[in-house]
Design brief:
The chain is α+β, with helices and mostly antiparallel strands. It is built from eleven helices and seven strands. Strands 1, 2, 3, 4, 5, 6 and 7 form a seven-stranded antiparallel β-sheet that branches. Helix 3 crosses helix 5 (117-129), helix 6 (174-192) runs antiparallel to helix 7 and helix 9 packs antiparallel against helix 10.
């Protein structure tokens, strides 16, 4: 079974950034063994499906709370401090439940929940609160990559792997990602206004500001690689197109920037259309 058709923006923080109960859970996750990035989506789907099959709303509901196991992704660690990305599966699943309750009608809410709605809301709110003052280390998008995310990365630093562990990803120091997000936000606001991409960039920048300044940011195509063949992945230049669009906007060439956007919309729109085919 393929991975979920999600793209990911992740933050890997130094181990010293985790303390208290959250730090204990992260260290326990390290002791159990890190999850491979290409398997992270399937691992989270498995945890959520197991919970549903047992009549539970969220992973960890049997013993919900601070003791809920945390899966982690890891960079480095050989001869130095590891950089760790907790998957935060339980609170992220809870946030998705609250979004579902806020956006869907009563019939779908009733059909989609394994517990009564008031109980679901209470449990989800408690699970989100388990993050405390921390932010989730992972954000996702379904069936596409939000174009503003590409403003954070250097097109030349893209990593492509086309073997059994098929992946496309970038990694960038968080200080660079923050600087690029701020610059792109200013350019976009000045050219096309405060909504849309500028808003996404502002939200992304605000999220990144909550992490240690020695962290690493990873943009990962995740399960979207299963929707594209090897030739399409090799030829994909989405990050380059976004950077070209930003340069054109900065120069005041709105028409050429719009053409870059149209090419990106055609490419990622074609990927998203696979949702209907599936």
């Amino acid at each position: 079974m393929p991975s979920p058709f999600l793209s990911y923006l992740r933050v890997y923080e130094p181990l010293r950034a985790f303390d208290g109960a959250s730090g204990a859970a992260v260290r326990a996750g390290l002791a159990r063994g890190a999850v491979r990035p290409d398997r992270a989506g399937r691992r989270e789907r498995e945890l959520c499906l197991r919970a549903m099959l047992r009549g539970r709303l969220l992973p960890g509901d049997a013993g919900a709370g601070a003791g809920t196991p945390v899966d982690v992704l890891v960079l480095g660690g050989e001869g130095g401090e590891p950089l760790v990305c907790p998957l935060d599966t339980r609170p992220r699943a809870a946030a998705a439940v609250l979004s579902f309750l806020a956006e869907e009608g009563p019939v779908l809410r009733s059909a989609g929940l394994v517990v009564p709605e008031p109980a679901a809301r209470r449990r989800a709110e408690r699970a989100v609160a388990e993050l405390g003052d921390s932010a989730a280390h992972v954000v996702t998008a379904a069936w596409t990559v939000p174009l503003p995310w590409f403003a954070l990365v250097d097109p030349e630093e893209r990593q492509v792997r086309l073997d059994a562990q098929r992946r496309v990803w970038w990694r960038v120091p968080i200080a660079k990602a923050l600087g690029r997000a701020g610059h792109a936000e200013r350019v976009v606001r000045g050219a096309v206004g405060d909504e849309g991409p500028a808003e996404v960039l502002a939200e992304t920048r605000g999220w990144l500001e909550r992490f240690d300044r020695t962290s690493i940011v990873e943009l990962d195509y995740g399960g979207l690689v299963d929707l594209l063949d090897d030739a399409a992945l090799r030829a994909d230049d989405s990050a380059g197109e976004v950077q070209r669009a930003l340069r054109l906007l900065r120069a005041g060439d709105l028409d050429e920037a719009a053409e870059c956007y149209a090419r990106l919309r055609e490419f990622w729109g074609g990927v998203a259309l696979r949702q209907r085919d599936g």
